[in-house]
Amino acid sequence: MARAVTPQRKALNTAIAALIGALIFFPIFWTVLTSFKTETQAIADPPVWFAFDWTLENYTAVNQRSDYLLHFWNSVVISVGSTLLGLMIAVPAAWAMAFVPGRRTKDILMWMLSTKMLPSVGVLVPIYLLFRQLGLLDTRMGLVIVLTLINLPIIIWMLYTYFREIPGEILEAARMDGASLREEVTHVLLPMAVPGMASTVLLNIILAWNEAFWTLNLTAAKAAPLTAFIASYSSPEGLFYAKLSAASTMAIAPILIMGWFSQKQLVRGLTFGAVK
Amino acid sequence: MATTHARAAARLMISPSVILLLGWMLIPLGMTLYFSVLRYNLLMPGDNPFVGIENYQYFLTDPAFTAALINTLALVVGVLAVTIIGGTLLALLLDQPMWATGIWRILVIAPFFVMPTVSALVWKNMFMNPVNGLFAHLFKSLGLAPFDFLAQAPLFSIIWIVSWQWLPFATLILLTAMQSLDREQIEAAEMDGAGALSRFRHITIPHLGRAATVVVLIETIFLLSVFAEILVTTNGGPGNASTNLTYLVYAESLLRFDVGMGSAGGVVAIILANIVAIFLMRAIGKNLDA
Amino acid sequence: MLNTRFMMGTVAGLALLSGLTSAQAEEITIATVNNGDMIIMQELSSIWEKETGNTINWVVLEENVLRQRVTTDIATGGGQYDVMTIGSYEAPIWGRQDWLSPLNDLPGFDYDDLIPTVAANLSAEDTLYAVPFYAESSFTLYRKDLFKQAGLTMPDQPTWDQIRDFAAKLTDKPNEVYGLCLRGKPGWGENLFVFGTMVNTFGGRWFDENWNTTIDTPEWKAALDYYLDVMTKYGPPGATSNGFNENQTLFQTGKCAMWIDATSAAGRVFDPAQSDVADKVAFTASPVAEVPKGNSAFWAWALAVPASSHKQDVAKEFISWATSADYVALVGKEKGWVAVPPGTRLSTYENPDYIAAAPFAATTLDAIESADPNDATAQPVPYSGIQYVSIPEFQGIGTTVGQNISAALSGSMSAEQALQSSQRSAEREIRRAGYGN
Fold first, then answer.
1. Residue C140 has what pLDDT?
2. Domains assigned to chain C
3. Which of B237, B240, B258 shows the shortest C-beta gap to C396?
């Protein structure tokens, strides 16, 4: 029996969802809108909505002051690099935990997650000294390593939960057929795990893109990603809302667009084993 | 079950992750422990003499410590409450039949992609600023005096900002869980004459338990170390009103450059985080086993 | 004949070429604050890059973040930066630690032209460790149109009591005009910049001759009571998050009748391109209370070369250029004379173009020359510094005290609590560091 849904009911639902969606999205919308205003229009009271002189001057100003493309490219390299590296280390671990669980598997997993609770600020000085010794300060390599380590527990956990949902019998069957371990992983396991891996990759790119403590503190100029770019627009002299908005828009647009386009893949896997 | 051979292979496959994470934990932790018993101020290089537990004494008796502990707890619990309740309601809404669900869902999840620094800057300047912010304009147009959010209600404002960022995450996970709910069960209950509210209480809520646990776990991990939002908006103030443990450690080691004290604070924070972790893991490990 | 000349020309040309290539083009990294004057420097330095063939990587950050980043780097010998923008607080302390390269013999640098008090504040034991980029004292900016409307006259040397009376008469909250804007954002470089001078002129000091902390004294209480009273009654809303930049925005948009802050603000509030009130601004000395000294702050932003930099020569070449009289003239030409970095060179104040464009020139110079970090308090003290105490521990003490003052301003702490808690924490720090033993 299908539940009868009246068009009125549907319209009401749509209206409420639209209203709430608009409210939640509003700060982003307002930032983008403000980035096209002049500085004085940006703080006008009452606020101006659409009837203002649309201008690109803020984007020009921001681009004159900072090398956006460099920061953007650093962000891409660091977030994608750390995700791929993390995946390479995490896939075997998650596979082993999911299909050859031992008595301690759960403890190891929980311990891994607990390493994420270490307060980064407390270990900045040790890491800084270490990085100086290793010549990793202000290098993309250095950030890739740190972000990989930071996000590794999440990657392992996410993969573990997907792998666990893959019925073990299929693997058994493959093994019976004489498949080697490698074939088992590449031909049987990976294809089934693709949605979960896609979602893991996306989530970790987002987390790495937005990480703002290590990326800001271990870089100077050459490896600085967009988080450092935005830091130079906080609280400068004079009116700055419009320029801040332009810089913010440029910093979040790539990841926002990526997120929207890959929404389905992201959502499908974002369950952490919570849905059976 | 698994053979010895498989077990050995498994151990081999897990070991890179374990070794890396162990190194990532132990090396800085070892250095932090070592620094925490030294008088080590970055601004005063010298012999950094051994001072035993002096740093711990100073850190634990600092009035800011108790305040930070309470604020940390309030921040985590506050954001969890908002995102779980808000997320459930939103998931419930988005689960209803409607037109163009995709668009509304995109709008709702957008804040999740915004970097914390940007969202803090935007909220602080363009909304909460008591002179030029939109809220101030709104209050004035209603004939009210502008409210100075970050000074009068600093912790509330930060909870607000952080909740905005994490609401999408909670919503998504809860929504996925809700969509996996057995329709027939609901319809059966409906036929039995159960009202919408009672259906929600007796079927939906229990079903969402697992998803909610996951949200609590993941969010807690991130919320214990909220930092950028505080640095950008209130600098932990006024006074200590919005200083959490992470920010306090930051203030010791990177504003006062007292690495010894900061390290002692770091060790304390690590111990406390692990206590929370143990409790959480216990509760959740059980829930996820099913 | 012709041939020889040709030959000589070629030789000279080759020599020049090889000279150019041997002064190999380098890439240097410069850390600086996102203040207006530095943004201009960043923009104009492309000229230097073209002239010398070197390239610059800029790290431009907000003051607090910048201070944290460069301090971490220099104290650990990280070597990430070749030029650092630091203040008059850091320069002597870091110089004594041998973290900075001495700058006493920059080739072709006109040292005699530097304002002596400014150079002295950036030196330790007669060695200059940072060259001043701009320097500032504090003074009173006010709106002459509002004063005229209200029939008020600003004296040459106002007292804080007079300021309170003026603020009471000028505050017009319905129209968003606030009588007095002062910094409220916590930080020793923020709210203490002005509040520290108030403590001096109300008769207080941080420590007595034996390094006993003297924060919970009647003088501090008087200064804090005054500050809280005027800020709650006549200040703008949200004062606890207003630092220099935020107040400047408020003043430029016509929301403050009076603003007591750094003299470097003048260049921007008088600039019609940036300020709605450019033609309505006047200025006078920083107010006094009981004690006629220590009432104007002193601060200099300066460029230094960390000892850990591997590109000392190019870095020094850049800082000589960016702090030279030629650079001042370049800003004058490109951005207008009102926008040149103030307070560093006597020649700037002798330049008729600058004096014509900057009516505040004489007052600024006077304030900077008379700001004496060694005689800023009524009672004797064991330290130097006007609104800060020139010891490494002050970062920590100042951070806590700044937080407490802002807590008192927000109302979450009483004035007594703020001072007592500041007293206790300063005592702890000083005891830990072993002063006065």
1. 95
2. 26-129+298-357 (3.40.190.10), 137-297+373-433 (3.40.190.10)
3. B258
